[in-house]
């Protein structure tokens, strides 16, 4: 009896979308709960015990997150997540350094939309923006980067680990290229923090974006690492009461910050073992699928990728048809849906993957709570769907899916 047949028919779909979000770890939820009820103080109200208690919890969480990435707690600014942190870093650095004649922004074509859209907004505001290509493996070309960075570049922004193809960039080397021209280096590390070892000092990062819900913390909370020595200078995005050392005004969400700190502490303690377990599951998934579907294509570098990531293309098929044929799996494509079509991923296009192959790509995100049994079930289910569709099974159009 196969794993697919043995699974209970009314069971919830197997969750394979851990890049979109991770489930909040029960230990994180437990740490947060008191701060939603009896521990309700405003961390900025330091004239009484309620406020001081909340402020102490915030600073403990700040220290936990700093410990995870090798930072000084004073270098962390809490945000609503990585999108806000990315906007703060890219736009804030560009606007601050324009007064010194630095009006250049350099990034990659595969960056997250919030970085690319920030760069385009700056371009409309008169900044020089260079959006560089990547190789077929998704890695940045260091020679191309070096030529693009000049004495008027304000900031270089390159993702640490990719949200769609899982590729891990050579961050230390890219930071050195930026610093050679006295430019700041920013990395969107939303997918990397808590999953691979990161030390901001050793890497030479000036600014780094973090998102709690990508490593088993709550949604709605993140942080921007902002180097103190030598100081990385940026302009705040908005004005207010001057919280977070004037960099991000607004009352801090204590429960979410406590959860972020607890998630960081758990990642610090368990990351190495978790990575090894996920590498084994990833190998099991890919080997099992290749045995059943030999022509499956792996997108992105085979080894320099997040332990739990696979991005796979199935020649001749559309991702939307595959997902419709696998209701027992929670999958994603990384593509944008428009009307009745799934637009091929701009990331895969940047890798040089043809539109037909890109349209048949799925992103597999294994995580902390993924089991070997679930991997086997997913392999059986996905392979059966591929074979059924290739034999003339139901398509998304026939099923009425838009």
Reconstruct the topology from this structure.
Elements: H1 3-6, E1 14-15, H2 26-32, H3 49-69, E2 76-79, H4 82-97, E3 104-108, H5 113-124, E4 128-132, H6 142-148, E5 153-157, H7 171-180, E6 184-188, H8 200-203, E7 207-211, E8 222-226, H9 254-292, E9 297-298, E10 309-313, H10 319-324, E11 329-330, E12 337-338, E13 341-342, H11 346-350, H12 355-358, E14 361-365, H13 372-390, H14 396-399
Parallel strand pairs: 1-11, 3-4, 3-5, 5-6, 6-7
Antiparallel strand pairs: 2-8, 7-8, 9-10, 10-14, 12-13
Order of helices and strands: HEHHEHEHEHEHEHEEHEEHEEEHHEHH
CATH topology of the largest domain: Aspartate Aminotransferase, domain 2
The CATH architecture term of the largest domain is 3-Layer(aba) Sandwich
- Give the fraction of residues assigned to helices: 25-40%
Shape: globular
- The CATH homologous superfamily name of the largest domain equals Type I PLP-dependent aspartate aminotransferase-like (Major domain)
Derived from helix and strand composition plus strand pairing, the structural class reads alpha/beta
Percentage of β-strand residues: 5-15%
Tally the helices: 14
The radius of gyration over CA amounts to 22 Å
Oligomer: single chain
DSSP strand count: 14
